[in-house]
């Protein structure tokens, strides 16, 4: 049974007909976040571990005077740890004034997605906690993560951006 689209994913009057996302890879899985949330894309840098943190928190790093928490996106998805390589990057995101870093395997592209190509997450237990939705581009499906739920301390409005408006 096909789920009806989430009304938050459908363009409302006056909303742009496209969303622009930065796509990135974790293993062979493709994800995307709105370009407006991306503060910068940084090569891997060692972090300072913090005590008593979740397994997916790598630690913190000093980014030009701002201390940011870095999360292992793959570990947060329950897929093991990211293998750090020359292509590994930290996506530095500004989530409601809170800068955070996501360790990912590589950044792929910046793409414009028509709102008509946005789909709600599948009706599978727990998926709605991890995904805002899916962007369909031909044969490709790009997962749009629900960062507020995944990271846990961020305001919902900071991570949904225009995807849900």
UniProtKB/TrEMBL annotation:
GO terms for cellular component: cytosol. One of its GO terms (biological process) is signal transduction. SMART domains: CheW (SM00260). InterPro entries: CheW, CheW-like_dom_sf, CheW-lke_dom. Pfam families: CheW. It comes from the Bacteria. Residues 18-156 form the CheW-like domain. This is Chemotaxis protein CheW. It comes from Alsobacter soli. The lineage of its organism: Bacteria, Pseudomonadati, Pseudomonadota, Alphaproteobacteria, Hyphomicrobiales.
